[in-house]
Amino acid sequence: MKGALRFAIALSWLAVAVGCAGVAAEEHVAAPTDVVGCAEPHHLPAPAFGARSEADSGARVVAETDPVYPSMAREANVDGRVEVMALVCEHGRVVDARVVRTDSAMLSTAAMDCVRHWSFEPARANGQPVPDWTQCFVHFNLK
Questions:
Q1: I need a surface site. Which of 2, 24, 135, 136 has the fewest CB within 10 A?
Q2: CATH code linked to domain 2-140
């Protein structure tokens, strides 16, 4: 039984690492509740996607990068905005990103990749940093 459980957990993590980042939010494969994607050790479980947070204050962007414009979208003259929900760990790093709304599916993967490179001041609960989901907007303009 333990071997089967370990295999299922490993398989779910592999699915997340290999390509779930590019699927729509409603198709996203749920990851286990442990926070991953950050080199720092984590002591707090991540809140479930869409769950109400216990944080007193939300995560705040400290540094953001511009998105890399997808060549296919540029050639098709596609621009727009992508709303991404990012799971920010207690160390201020994005460990998961999911598209909530997009003006064009051609921009979704680039928006998630962009947000994953942002740095945050983590959310806080009782004065302590905690992992939490935060709303991010990525704008693609051809100008």
A1: 2
A2: 3.30.2420.10
